[in-house]
Amino acid sequence: VSARAEVDARGLSCPLPALRTRIALRGRPAALEVLVSTGAARTNVEELLLDEGYEVTIREEGDDWRVTASRGG
Amino acid sequence: MSPRLSRTSLLTLSAGLAFGAIAALLVRAGNPGNMGVCIACFLRDTVGAFGGAALGMGGVAYVRPEIPGLVLGAAAAAVAGREWRPRGGSGFPLRFALGFLFMTAALAFLGCTVRAWLRLAGGDLNAAVGVAGLVAGVGAASLALRAGYDLGRARTLSAAAGLAGPAVAIALLAAAAIGASGAAPKILTVTPAGARATAQGAVLAGTGVLKPAGSRLVDGAVVATDGAVVSDAAAVAAAKPLPGGRRAPLVLSLLAGLLLGAVAQRTRLCTTGGIRDVFLARAPGKLLGVAGIVAGAMVLNVALGQFRLGFADQPVAHTDAAGNFVAMALAGAAAVLMGGCPLRQLVMAGEGDVDAAGAVLGMAAAAALAHGAGVASTPRGLAPLGWPVLGACAVVLAAIALARRARTAAQPGAAPSP
C-alpha cells in the first residue's frame, strides 16, 4: 500500500489513461495524481476515481489537466 | 447508486437516445434505410462524389453533409468547453492503416459500428450477427490492450495543424453546396436523387435510363441502342434505389450532423467503447450510449413504420452470416486499436487531433479502392474478393496489435509498476 501515486497519461489514446489509472489503483494509494491531455481522458479518469470512492479535484495546467484524487474522510 | 453516477449515466443514455432518434428521422427525411447516420457509408459516398464513375462509384456519389457537420459540431463544442487541443504524432501511419482496415471490413458488412446498431434498431437481424462479431472483435482487441498495446503519446501541435480536420470539413461543405446548387463541375459526381438500379446494372432515374448510355425504356424493359434487352420489365419493376440517390435535404443533414457532433463531443459517445470497457474493467456505464442509440432509433422506427424484423430483404444489407460476423469482428478490433469508433475519430478530428484525422483519411482511402476493386459487398452478398481480403485484414490487424505490444513492453517505464 503506497501513500501517493502518480500517472502520466498525457498524450495517450483512449482507453489507456483510465487503464493505467486502474493499474495504479491496485496499490490502493491514499492519494493519486493523473496528468491527462484530452477532455475524454479527463472525464474517464474522473469517473473511475469517483467510482472508487476518491474525492477528485481537477486543475488545468497549460494544455493538460491534473486530476488529483484523495481518500475523503 | 450515487446521484453523481446516475447523472452521468443519464447523460450518456440521453446522448444515445438523441442520436438514435435523429438517425431514424433522417431516414424518414430521405436517407437510405437504417442509414440515418453511417460514418463508413457516408465517407464512402463523399469519396464517390470525387471519384465518381472512374472508381465505379457512380451509384454512391454524394457529399454527405452529416460528415462535415459532425466534425464542425464537435469542433465548436470543444472550443466552447475549452477542450480544443491541436495534437498528433501518435502513430499517424498506423492509424491511417487501421482506418483503412476498418473501412474495408465495414464495407464487407455494409455499415460501420454506428450503423450496426441502427440496423439492429430497424429490425435487421443480420446486424444481430454483426453485433455478435463486434463483441468478439472488441474482446480480442481488448486482450491486446491488456497486454500493453499502445500507439505512443500524442504531443501538442500548432493550431494550424489542429485546424486541418475542420478545414477539410468546411471544404466538403462547400462541395456539398455546389453539388446541391445544380452546378456540375467536372470534379464532382452526384448520384441523381431517387436513382434506381436493376440487378443487371441498368440505372434509372424517374422514367429515364441513365446507364447504359443511350438505352431507353421500351414496354417497361431497358433496351440498348442495338436493340438488345439489358433489363426486362420485371427487373425494372424490381429495381432498387441506389444509396447515393437517397438523401435527406442538405440543411437537415447538416443541422443533424452539427448537433450530433456537439453531443458526441460533450458526452464522449462511442459505439465500441462500452463493450471494450466491459472486457477491460467490467464497467458497463458506456454501454448506455449504444443502448440509447438502439432504443431511440427503434421507437422512432416503429412509430414511423420503418421497423421490419427479419433477415431477408433488409435495406442495404446482405444475409451472409459468416461474412457479417467476421467483418464486424474485424471492424470492432480495428476501432479499439485506433482508440475509438469512427464517430469518435470524426469528433476527435474536430477537436484538433491530427492522428484521428489520419484514421479518417485511411477510411476514405479504403473506400476509394473498395468499389473499383470489387471488395465492397452488395445486397447479394460478399464480393468475390471478400473472404481473401477479410483474411488479409485479420493478419495485418493481428500484426499491428502484436508489434505495438512488443515495442511498448520493451520501453522502460511504459507499464507502471504496481
Numbering strands along the chain, what is their spatial order in the largest sheet of chain B? 5-4-3-9
Largest sheet of chain A: 4 strands, mixed
Low-pLDDT sequence parts of chain A: none
List how many beta strands of chain A DSSP finds: 4
Work out the radius of gyration of chain A. Answer: 11 Å
Mean pLDDT of chain A: 93
| Helix and strand sequence of chain B | HHHEHHHEHHEEEEEEHEHHHHHHH
Structural description of this entry:
The complex is a heterodimer of chains A (73) and B (418). With 73 residues, chain A is of the alpha+beta class. Chain A is 32% helix and 37% strand. Chain A has two helices and four strands; from the N terminus they run E-H-E-H-E-E. Chain A has helices spanning 16-25, 39-51; strands spanning 4-8, 31-36, 54-61, 64-71. Chain A has a four-stranded mixed sheet, covered by helices on one side. In chain A, helix 1 runs parallel beside helix 2. The model of chain A has no long low-confidence stretch (mean pLDDT 93). The radius of gyration of chain B is 21 Å and the shape is globular. Chain B has 418 residues and is mainly alpha-helical. In chain B, the strands form three sheets. A four-stranded antiparallel sheet of chain B has the order 5-4-3-9, with no helix packed on it. In chain B, strands 6-7-8 form a three-stranded antiparallel sheet. Chain B has a two-stranded antiparallel sheet with strand order 1-2. The two termini of chain B are 29 Å apart. Classes of the chains: A alpha+beta (73), B mainly alpha (418). The interface between A and B is medium-sized, with 28 and 38 residues.
